[in-house]
Amino acid sequence: MKWLDLFLIFCLSAVLIPQTGVAVGRERCFRETGYCISGPILIYWERNGGLRVFGFPISNQSIQTAEDRMLTVQWFERDRLEIQADGHVTAGRLGARYLELQGRPWQTFPTVAQADPGCAYFAVTGHQVCEPFLIYWRVRGGLERFGYPITERMNEEIEGKVYQVQYFERRRMEYHPELAGTPYEVLLGRLGADVMRIDNCVLLEPMYEPIAYAYRRLLGCPIASSRELVNPLGPVQLKMRPVPLAVQRFERGIMLWVRRWGDAPILPEIFVLTADSSDPQRFTWQMFADEWQEGTPIRFDEMPPAGRYAPERGFGYVWVHNAEVRSRLGWAVEPEQGETGGYRQFVRGFILSRPSNDTVFLFLDSGEALVVPRRN
Description:
Layout: H1 3-16, E1 21-24, E2 27-30, E3 35-38, H2 39-47, H3 50-54, E4 62-66, E5 69-76, E6 79-83, E7 89-91, H4 94-101, E8 120-122, E9 127-129, H5 133-139, H6 142-146, E10 154-158, E11 161-167, E12 172-175, E13 186-188, H7 191-198, H8 210-214, H9 216-219, E14 241-250, E15 253-258, E16 269-276, E17 279-289, H10 313-321, H11 323-329, E18 337-346, E19 349-354, E20 359-364, E21 368-373
Antiparallel strand pairs: 1-2, 2-3, 4-5, 5-6, 6-7, 8-9, 10-11, 11-12, 12-13, 14-15, 14-18, 15-16, 16-17, 17-21, 18-19, 19-20, 20-21
């Protein structure tokens, strides 16, 4: 059965069978997805079309970053509803976000200089809205509900069929000729579900990953292949992949050995972190392949002073064969320590966690690194 048929069945059942959403006080829970709606978001959802307009809830209410602000939000199949600081509920800018995630930001679409007959022109974005989308836009909330148009009307394939669509800041409208003359001639796209599916940052909630959430501006979003979902129908918890890890602190920095994971294991690597004299948490990093072979001796020209250590194995190999590394780091101040750590890959870097001392290493593609406590 196609999604359109399911949509019409759900809409009909919402009218004819009220128990689809069971009211418990001011909470409505939906067995179809396992989530509930309550408070101001429930009031907004009910007053502005409910299931037909927003679809089922697909997340709990939680504090998330939306448009660079910390807001209480809840995701629905067709929308993201946000409680603003003044208590008003608004719709998220999912039309713009969806295009951005697809690599075709709305600013790159062709614009027009004026409206065609019977259309409305919006100079702010350089786009017009024509029928049948114009009457739908005007009657169902206009600028507040949909935002400005950010594309012209165009053809787009949706679930194997081509429809005329138009993107607005907050929504995508779809024209369904097979439903012409019915209230469902214009439908709203499932942008809530689509954006959640491809935007990994949606799942970065502070209660689950405080470090990744706190540094998301530097790291970007998690890369999907490194994400582990614990419960696809309940709250989504993000976990770090376990990796073998070795750490050794030096007079002016740190060495780490790790075998990272992507879609497949990566060969062992040694990271040299050089300390920033002005900030004890800030480093620069450089990566070396681990070329040391088991049993190969490391020859030192001098012995370490009292209270210092000569690095061994792969650390020693890099330290001895690279005068610059040796000069930057100095002697080790502790023996090498091995353990199992955690690894997560992000768009602009990666995280390594060291459970033994509750430390997290943030490696940025810029060549900078931060060493921070796991719990801020």
